[in-house]
Amino acid sequence: MKFENLLIETVEGIAVVTVNRPQALNALNQQTLVELQGAFADLSNNEAVQVIILTGSGEKAFVAGADIAAMQPLSALDARQFAKLGHEVMGAIEKSPKPVIAAVNGFALGGGCELALACDIRLASEKARFGQPEVNLGVIPGFGGTQRLARLVGKGVALELLLTGDLIDAAEAYRIGLVNKVVPQAELLEAAKKMAARILSKGPCAVKLAKEAVRNGLEMDLDKANQYEADLFGLCFASSDQKEGMQAFLEKRTPRFQGN
Ligand code: DAK
Prior knowledge:
This protein is of the alpha/beta class. It has helices spanning 30-45, 68-71, 76-95, 111-118, 145-153, 155-164, 170-175, 188-200, 204-217, 222-236, 240-250; strands at 6-11, 14-19, 51-56, 61-63, 100-104, 107-109, 121-125, 129-131, 168-169, 181-183. The strands form 2 sheets. Strands 1-2-3-5-7-10 form a 6-stranded mixed beta sheet, sandwiched between helices.
């Protein structure tokens, strides 16, 4: 697939996907969403890619939201279709078998914050700003923000952000658990790559199943979720990674995982 609004570079198993519409602070229009959908389908099926980093071009914005100019004239049915496409993209990221790290390099507002929320881990630069300012525009989040934000930071904090539309800085985002780590802007991509490389060195089957266990388990009650975890734990023992990982430990050497 050819991309107009995305840059994708893969080096040593780590794919960096950059949303590249700097003239609109990387806002998500229909085409960008379709491209993200295609990119994540490709990358999720590409065996050469093991970890994905998602970021925005330039120093100002990660993604400043859904594209307001494109949304303004939509009919109710078109808006529903647009929201459906956004949900599909966020779902594709969340369900990707590869870990996805958001490297938030600036404004992550509205749909941009929702995009970061769909990722597995969020690293932020000191310049990052987060918010769900949709209420300023007379709408509510349309790409899962009311749900994923509340699940991540809790109902009260999420509602404060959703009802006031206030923006928060990276330090506050870290304090409320919206981001995992804050680093200087110049070090952001390197920090994301370093974390990706750490994940890449682990047993690939286990990494994939751990993501699956957390994602699906959170939708279940605790008893069912623990049973599900036990099933996936058992499944690890069907992999050569488990044999190699434990053998390497016993032989006091670094494991050589095959990912099967
Ligand atoms: N969409 C389109 N263009 C945008 C944009 C956006 N979200 N954000 C910025 N831009 C454009 C600006 O219009 C401007 O374009 P020009 O005037 O140069 O042509 C350019 O990017 C630079 O922006 P500014 O001149 O405004 O830059 P400043 O530094 O002054 O301000 C800012 C930066 C990020 C504070 C400001 O641009 C801003 O407030 N942007 C809007 C942020 C925002 O409200 N984001 C949330 C968008 S709403 C749904 C589906 C989806 C959604 C909701 C419902 N359904 C279908 C139900 C999702 C909604 C959203 O994400």
